[in-house]
Amino acid sequence: MSDPLVQVRDLVKVFRVSRKEPGLKGALKGLFRSETSQLRAVDGVSFSLERGEMVGYIGPNGAGKSTTIKMLTGILTPTSGDVVVDGMVPWRDRRVYTKRIGVVFGQRTQLWWDIAVVESFRLLREIYGVSESDYAARMKEFDDLLEIGRFLHQPVRKLSLGGRMRCDLGASLLHEPELLFLDEPTIGLDVVAKSNVRAFLSEVNRRDGTTVILTTHDLDDIEELCRRVVIIDRGQVLYDGVLQGLRDRHLPEARIRFDIRDTPGTDPGFLDVGGRQAERVGKNRYQVVVDKRTATAADVIREIVNRYPVVDLSVSEPDIEEVVTRIYRESARRRPDTGGVDLDRPPERRSAIRRG
Q: How far is the C-alpha of 57 from the C-alpha of 73, rounded, in Å?
């Protein structure tokens, strides 16, 4: 078995943050004596990615997601720990490394703001050393899958968010990178634009074997694109595994909803199902929640059909958004006060990526 493409071991990033008292007095005091504190934005994160994997890297605001991605792309240098991507250290080998990766930040753009999109693509072709034949083939592919042809002769500033995102995705993949970082790639997009972007990413991953790290708050992106998810909060990994395992670990429930035949003179607010309460949720319709750690859905269904005149029945599990929301809430109750500082947006110098 080949070595993982990405190996992250005990990654730590600590920022020194100045604290100032409010008002003029606080400002004057800060000129002569500044109080600082340390914030551990990332605290011992470890994981690895195999070639061709598409992994969701998620967490609440301030969890450390963006800080991790900035270290993995070479924008930030960690306080301690190791990152090795195909034998390269991102912040040490940045000149060579950046030619092997693609990066898309949903709220920024790597395209030049005031010139036509096609001119940005031509400049990127020169920067990455893409041949004319490969460039033509890639541009045709982007037009077939992302329909960017109609945007090419417009300035970036005149594009809709959906149009710009399609062009940014194309630009990030122009040089056929082995590893693609996506930070909120569907933020602000409508339903159709999101569907187009997801279909494109699935095709790129399937056909080219591109490894993808996806950070997003849109959990539909995760369900449609990623089999594996890594959840981070307070700079630490809470979960690393498949989505189904996430449900089984944090919200192991089955919800059984059933309709019974109308029985004159009876309309109870709940029914007894082997010691469990099935709550009425509509006319002749009831729902019972089963903890899968203590019973199977099959056993409870057998109890229901043996005791009541059932005419319809369905079984469902909590969706991924509900599961992740519960994890966030449980973690938030243990979260230390950060003094209002967002750990995912620490103080840093302006990066080389052009902001749109």
A: 14
**Model pTM?**
0.77
- Encode pLDDT of 196-246 as tens digits: 888 889 999 999 999 999 998 888 888 889 999 999 988 999 899 987 778
Q: Would residue 199 be called left, alpha or beta, if left means φ above 0 and alpha means ψ between -120 and 50 degrees?
A: alpha
Burial bucket for residue 215 (CB in 10 Å: 0-12, 13-18, 19+)? buried
- Residues 77 and 67: their CA atoms lie apart, in Å, by 10
Q: Which CATH superfamily is domain 42-248+325-334 in?
A: P-loop containing nucleotide triphosphate hydrolases (3.40.50.300)
Look up residue 131 and give its amino acid: S
Amino acid of residue 196 = N
Instruction: Give the burial class of 337: count Cβ atoms within 10 A of its Cβ; 0-12 exposed, 13-18 middle, 19 or more buried.
Output: exposed
Beta-carbon count within 10 A of 29 CB: 14
DSSP letter at 74?
T
Strands (E) across the chain are located at 6-19, 35-49, 54-58, 80-85, 101-105, 179-183, 211-215, 228-233, 236-242, 253-260, 270-273, 276-282, 285-291, 310-316
* 12 three-class SS: strand
Q: Where are the domains of the chain?
A: 42-248+325-334, 253-316
The structure tokens listed for 172 are 């990030």
- pLDDT tens string 52-100: 999 999 988 888 998 999 999 999 999 999 999 999 999 999 989 999 9
Rounded to whole angstroms, the Cα distance separating 187 from 185 reads 6
Beta strands in 50-94 (DSSP E): 54-58, 80-85
Q: What CATH number has the domain spanning 253-316? A: 3.30.70
Separation between Cα atoms, residue 276 and residue 112, nearest integer Å: 62
298: left (phi over 0), alpha (psi -120 to 50) or beta: alpha
Core vs surface per residue 14-27: b (16+ CB within 10 A) or e: bbebeeeeeeeeee
